[in-house]
């Protein structure tokens, strides 16, 4: 036995049919697109993150070497150089490790690169990165 519907409910169903179909189609398409795009986005983010991590690791290795050299030997760097080295370490440490809408990772990345180059200039060593990431999105 068919359910008796109020005439106004039937008219509402007819009137809202296009909107209902539009929403269902959008939801279905969004889910299909998300399922198809997530693996590609994940791999892109993973590989770019690995490149940035390798670059930061290189910087930390150079910085830590010079900090240790200053502490363990007769090589004495000025306070300005030591402070610059520590500043680079602080910036790398503060770099976000998770996705966040709050951080502009491109600006942070460029800031770290600039501070590293400044530290290298003070140390009078080349600032080139042998990995040559040149990360751009």
TrEMBL record:
Pfam families (alphabetical): Yae1_N
Essential protein Yae1 N-terminal domain ranges (all copies): 26-63
Family: Belongs to the LTO1 family.
Name of the molecule in the record: Essential protein Yae1 N-terminal domain-containing protein
